[in-house]
Design brief:
Length: about 800
């Protein structure tokens, strides 16, 4: 028996690995895997770039195996997919689907979002197919509607409308029958026939029609040995209706047990609650729908047929890379590409938020989803389908909406214990009232039904996903792409924000302000410097070259160009070695700087200028001063962050004097200077080791290590390049106020999540004791099942409505901005 169990837990895995350079890499991974407890017979094939192994699923999970590969310094190739699911009614449904998918071999991570009715799955395509996932969902009794993106938008709308119509019809029938019956009962109207039989005949068909979805969902749940809310509701309304039948025919119970209209009304309230909830949930994902609406449906391409060119309109999905696309005035640009002919202004406000149209001409890029305004453009398609900037934004937002911030774990834990606890409370309350306190059986049953009906974990299940979905969608509308729920939660706890200087606080387009020559004339100094710097892509180097070109200087040939790790550069011009850089470089090379020259350097640095010293290995020839202008919103953004009680620090490669001069202009007191680019991440780590929770704001490419090291990396001004690996928050616009708005939005969303969770807990904590009859002995107050049903219906709707209020939230940092809101 033991061996059989062990065999059952033993599973095979095939993992695709990237980053292996040689056979020894494969051996390193093999060793790491075989050292894991629960892993046996791991073999890594370097040529096939995959690992085959056996593992004991009771001792180790697949994601832990993959983490071992990542910790060894390699990447695991998995796929992410979004599945559409129908028939989920509560947080327990979410748990059931997550549990069943997590048991499948090859599933790495599953997040099911009740609000958007989607499952976000990371899986190993070598081990499992999407079809198998769909079957597992259907075997649970839920509807598998397909993969996100493969279902047509209008088909989704039809399914949603049909579901809403079904729920609406059911609660209308329930109230149309139960309300008149209740009036007859309470008014004491005497009918010429047996009231009990009349009630049974009138309610039985409506009851079956209204409650059928509840009972069928409960049956499916029990089949899968799970307890969900439908099981509890079925118990509540089932006890009410069956006890009424028993009372009608005097079987065990007497005719006073008349709950027919109550059972029907309870089922009606449940359907009303679900109808309101579904309507509200549909509105949480409008941001994604608007984004999808920006995508063009068709494109006109130009094809050569013999001696003439023919314009053909095709679906946008059929456009191929290098197709020549024609866009006329007023049309939406279908895919990303590069202009080859024509000139026109293009409205990019929906992507970048820039209010003014941008001139597009030959060799400039155009972005799919933007609108051509006044001219005809021909461009070569470069990025199509899922690779376009708009598709990347949609994917990023969708994956973020499916993520869970850590705070949801509290709610998830509570939900897992919820139903057994409620069933226990209901049973204990019934026993207490009927057997111990000697109440009537009618009173005991009423208490039992009220507890089963009023309890609602749905509000807890919806508290986080609805707020995350709406909040992240709102961020996308504002040009702030928050990549995951964890970034939301950490952003709320930040106490230190570290800003890179060049290109983040400043425009990143420095200009030459001073040229001071010692032994050679200024023109010659500038010519030599530019001849060396033309080999570099650094913003300071480009500024020197621009200055020389504007003066009409003919640059010389330079060879053996070498970058000296953030300190400077060197090269050969006509066999003469030229060294350019900061004081440290010249000191390391023992090149003397006379006192008068040092005084000039000091003056320039105190003015916030970067001094580039030019010389040879023997002597100094002069200095070129370069200054970078601050962005228009820098001072305001820094002030806003300081007003939020955040410690704001600037990090730069400049020397201390220059850095302090710039910091003084901004209004900053704390500066970390003379930091080489590769050392920025180490500086972030130092702050973290001192207990700081750090956000790093910088360039998504140059500052990638620091962005990755920070608790929250904020990549500024990425434009349409949103596929940035580093950076938990990606800002479309090059506006520092958006970094402030990102933090403010995160705080607002987290505040709303906590508010939702509080109300969900408070609702259950207050109303369950009331339903159990705690107020009856002192005040004679009971909680009728009908009112319990209404309260339950309203609890979920309240939470979803609170989340929906985020749709109109405008961060204070954006209120003073005159720029158009981006993306949507």
């Amino acid at each position: 028996m033991g061996n059989k169990m062990a065999d059952k837990a033993e599973k095979k895995a095939k993992i695709k690995i990237s980053g292996m350079q040689c056979a020894s890499c494969a051996l390193n991974i093999e060793k790491s895997l075989n050292n894991l407890e629960g892993v046996s017979d791991a073999q890594v094939n370097f040529n096939a770039e995959e690992a085959n192994l056996n593992y004991d699923s009771d001792k180790i999970k697949l994601f832990e195996v993959e983490n071992a590969v990542k910790n060894a310094g390699y990447d695991v190739i998995n796929e992410k997919i979004t599945l559409k699911i129908g028939g989920m009614t509560c947080a327990m449904c979410v748990k059931a689907i997550e549990d069943v998918l997590n048991k499948l071999e090859g599933i790495i991570e599953v997040n099911v979002n009740l609000a958007s009715e989607k499952a976000y799955v990371t899986y190993n395509p070598q081990m499992i197919t999407v079809k198998e996932m769909g079957k597992a969902i259907e075997d649970l009794g839920y509807e598998y509607l397909g993969v996100e993106g493969e279902i047509q938008e209008d088909q989704e709308d039809k399914l949603r409308e049909a579901d809403l119509k079904s729920k609406k019809n059911r609660f209308i029938v329930a109230f149309a029958v139960s309300i008149p019956l209740m009036i007859i009962m309470y008014a004491g109207v005497m009918l010429p026939f047996n009231m009990a039989y009349f009630m049974l005949v009138v309610t039985i068909l409506p009851f079956i029609y209204v409650s059928y979805p509840i009972f069928s969902a409960a049956y499916r749940s029990l089949q899968n040995r799970a307890l969900n809310m439908d099981v509890m509701y079925s118990l509540g309304i089932g006890v009410a209706f069956i006890s009424s039948i028993l009372g009608t025919f005097n079987i065990v119970l007497t005719p006073e047990f008349m709950f027919y209209e109550t059972a029907l009304m309870l089922a009606g309230f449940l359907m009303l609650g679900r109808w309101l909830e579904s309507r509200a949930k549909g509105r949480t994902s409008t941001a994604i729908k608007k984004l999808v609406g920006l995508q063009a449906k068709s494109a006109v391409i130009i094809r050569d047929e013999g001696e003439k060119s023919v314009e053909t309109e095709i679906p946008v999905d059929d456009v191929q890379v290098r197709d020549i696309v024609l866009v006329k005035p007023g049309e939406r640009i279908p895919v990303d590409g590069r202009v080859i002919f024509g000139e026109s202004y293009v409205d990019e406000s929906m992507i970048t938020g820039e209010p003014l149209p941008v001139l597009k001409k030959a060799n400039l890029n155009v972005v799919g989803g933007t609108i051509n305004q006044n001219g005809v453009l021909k461009f070569s398609a470069e990025k199509i389908g899922k690779d376009t900037a708009l598709a990347q934004i949609i994917k990023l937002v969708e994956m973020a909406q499916g993520s869970k911030p850590p705070v949801q774990r509290v709610a998830d834990r509570a939900v897992s214990y919820f139903i057994p606890t409620i069933l226990t409370i209901a049973l204990v309350a019934f026993i207490l009232w009927y057997f111990i306190l000697g109440s009537t059986l009618l009173f005991g049953l009423t208490v039992l039904i009220s507890i089963l009906v009023v309890a609602c974990p749905c509000a807890l299940g919806l508290a986080t996903p609805t707020a995350v979905t709406v909040g992240i969608g709102r961020g996308a509308e504002l040009g702030i792409l928050i990549k995951n729920g964890e970034a939301l939660e950490i952003s709320e706890k930040l106490n230190t924000i570290l800003f890179d200087k060049t290109g983040t606080l400043t425009k990143g387009k420095p200009e030459v302000t001073d040229v001071l020559a010692i032994e050679i004339d200024e023109q010659n100094l500038l010519k030599i410097a530019a001849s060396v710097e033309k080999n570099s892509e650094h913003p300071l180097a480009k500024a020197v070259v621009r200055k020389a070109e504007s003066e009409g200087l003919n640059l010389k040939e330079s060879i053996a160009f070498t970058s000296l790790g953030g300190k400077g550069v060197k090269a050969l011009i006509a066999d003469q070695e030229v060294i350019m850089g900061n004081r440290i470089l010249f000191k390391e090379n023992n090149i003397p700087l006379d006192p008068e020259f040092q005084e000039s350097l000091l003056k320039l640095e105190n003015e916030g200028k970067t001094a580039i010293i030019v010389g040879s290995p023997e002597k100094t020839w002069g200095v070129i001063a370069v200054a970078d202008t601050l962005k228009e919103t820098t001072k305001k953004a820094i002030q806003e962050l300081r007003d939020m009680d955040l410690q704001v620090t600037m990090i730069t490669g400049d020397n201390e004097r220059t850095a302090k001069a710039v910091a003084q202009q901004i209004g900053l007191e704390k500066v970390i200077s003379e930091v080489l680019p590769q050392d920025k991440a180490a500086e972030v780590k130092k702050l973290q080791e001192n207990g700081e929770i750090v956000a790093f704001v910088g360039d998504g490419i140059n500052d990638a290590p620091a962005l990755a090291q920070a608790d929250v990396g904020i990549a500024v001004g990425s434009g349409t390049d949103v596929a940035i690996e580093s950076g938990d928050i990606v800002l479309i616009k090059d506006d520092l106020l958006d970094s402030v708005a990102g933090v403010q939005l995160s705080k607002k969303v987290m505040g709303r999540i906590k508010q939702n969770i509080f109300w969900a807990f408070a609702y259950n904590a207050i109303l369950i004791p009331v339903a159990a009859g705690i107020l009856y002995p002192p005040f004679g107050i009971t909680f009728r099942p009908e009112y319990a049903g209404l309260a339950m219906a309203l609890s979920s709707v309240t939470v979803v409505s609170l989340s929906l209020m985020l749709k109109g939230y405008l961060p204070p940092a954006k209120r003073s901005s005159n720029n158009k809101i981006s993306l949507i």
